Amino acid sequence: MKQITAHTAAELLAAMEKRELSARQITAAYLEQIEKTDRHIGAYLTVTAKEALAAADAADTARRQGRAGSLCGLPVAVKDNICTAGVRTTCASKMLADFTPPYSATAFKKLQAAGAVLLGKTNMDEFAMGSTTENSHFHPTKNPVDPTRVPGGSSGGSAAAVASRQAPLALGSDTGGSIRQPAAYCGVVGLKPTYGAVSRYGLVAFASSLDQIGPLANTVEDVALLYDAICGHDPRDATSAPRDYTPTRTALWQDISGLKIALPREYFGPGLSAPVKQGILAAAHRFEQLGAEIVETTLPSLDSALPAYYVISSAEASSNLARFDGVKYGFRAAGFTSRDEIYLKSRSQGFGAEVKRRILLGSFVLSAGYFDAYYKKAQQVRTLVVQDFARILDTCDMVLSPVAPTTAYKLGEKQGDPMQMYLGDVYTVPVNIAGLPAVSLPCGRDEQGLPVGMQLIGRHFGEAQILRAAHHFAQSYREERA
């Protein structure tokens, strides 16, 4: 019999329904795995062991009484920029190192209502700004596939927790690829939902027009299970979409014959490594074998999307992070003699180098004399990206692309060259700019055994369709490898 932590979330749910396993047994197994493994990985910032066991007992009671929710008894890890009442939420920053929020994010409250068990809060790049989870104030996270390499970022802790079987399910956030890129590097599945499909209430803001909470797991079915639990309209989030959300998990097994999948040639330009290119082309061929049609097309705005993203996201970060000033809450520096000195010292000492770099960039592009040249121009590029995707998705059902130009690189390899790190987001940021859904999943390995990730990009609120295609691909890929 497989170890408890080797099962998928769907399998664990079925075992609890049959009374073959209890929520306490499952939670205890994951806590033991965290105790044994995380000292080498660094996926967690806070582990809520005592509270998790109590929640598991409550889940077992609810199941016995016929009150089981859709996630009843399933352990979940949550990225540390998602507010959890009574549980420390640091954003991996010195600025919020001791912050315990008095309220919970809507997405987390939905997990609780569904009966999920919180294992703890996962590590991340500080304030979600980074692509490696090396920018955490506390410690870097290592890739479970190869601990000498980065797990990706900024949701690297969540991806590493899932990949190392320290959690069957995890929540991350995605502003420019922060769910999909770690999922690709760690060989797991990650979904960036449509902007507005999952409430952002209680998510500590990085770039408000781009941020989106989403799920990570080891299988597409588990991702669908978690997504179905957290999506939906929230009146407390002004950007939340008021619409009906149909379950995605039940649609996974529907046929994908006849689906039209676009393959834009711009995704295969300079910078794409040979193993990733081979993996994506092999994935396209596999889809054809499954009955889908591959359509070659163009996405001319791809090269312009990356600089536009860094202008827009940095501008919004500059505005959002202005609230952290050392006065009301968060880190306050010692030895000040005036209000201005509180601001200066607290922000200088409380933020890390990458966060300060982006605040400075954002303040610059919003300043008088530069607003039109940078921020306004970036918003015009955003319109072009939206139009390009709309043109493609008018005739095709989804877009197939790489997630990142390369597989996971060595820890510390790109810390001294931020531009090289930023270029790694070239394939993911257009999705956030356009507000579209996209799922990342493994499609191969390079010569060193590192996972290659692909993404399927869908129409607005097309999560069910891209997850269905991803599920069929994953089933076929798994059968071949078996």
Automatic annotation (TrEMBL):
InterPro entries reported in the protein's UniProt record: Amidase, Amidase_CS, Amidase_dom, AS_sf, GatA
An example Gene Ontology molecular-function term: glutaminyl-tRNA synthase (glutamine-hydrolyzing) activity
GO CC annotation terms, alphabetical: glutamyl-tRNA(Gln) amidotransferase complex
Known catalytic reactions: L-glutamyl-tRNA(Gln) + L-glutamine + ATP + H2O = L-glutaminyl-tRNA(Gln) + L-glutamate + ADP + phosphate + H(+)
GO biological process terms held by the UniProt record: translation
EC top class named in words: ligase
The family this protein is said to belong to: Belongs to the amidase family. GatA subfamily.
Reported function: Allows the formation of correctly charged Gln-tRNA(Gln) through the transamidation of misacylated Glu-tRNA(Gln) in organisms which lack glutaminyl-tRNA synthetase. The reaction takes place in the presence of glutamine and ATP through an activated gamma-phospho-Glu-tRNA(Gln).
Subunit relationships: Heterotrimer of A, B and C subunits.
PANTHER family found in the cross-reference section: GLUTAMYL-TRNA(GLN) AMIDOTRANSFERASE SUBUNIT A, TRANSAMIDASE
Name this protein carries in UniProt: Glutamyl-tRNA(Gln) amidotransferase subunit A
Originating species: Neobittarella massiliensis (ex Bilen et al. 2018)
Lineage: Bacteria, Bacillati, Bacillota, Clostridia, Eubacteriales
